[in-house]
């Protein structure tokens, strides 16, 4: 069983790159069993959405 630390790393990495099949599966399994990490995962998704929304706003509008 992977640790919460490893699960958190995968959550962070999946924002930057596509996880491999086994990485996705182990993260999914961990989230299924660990309430704490489910909460973290939800927060990661919110943060990522905010960050990408902001980078679109900050994009310089060249004319
Ligand atoms: Zn966990």
From TrEMBL:
It comes from the Bacteria. It holds the Pfam family zf-HC2. InterPro entries: Znf_put. Residues 4-38 form the Putative zinc-finger domain. This is Putative zinc-finger domain-containing protein. It comes from Marinobacterium maritimum.
């Amino acid at each position: 069983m992977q640790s919460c630390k490893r699960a958190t790393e995968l959550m962070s990495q999946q924002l930057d790159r596509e996880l491999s099949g086994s990485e996705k599966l182990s993260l999914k399994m961990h989230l299924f069993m660990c309430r704490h990490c489910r909460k973290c995962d939800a927060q990661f998704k919110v943060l990522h959405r905010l960050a990408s929304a902001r980078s679109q706003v900050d994009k310089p509008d060249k004319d």
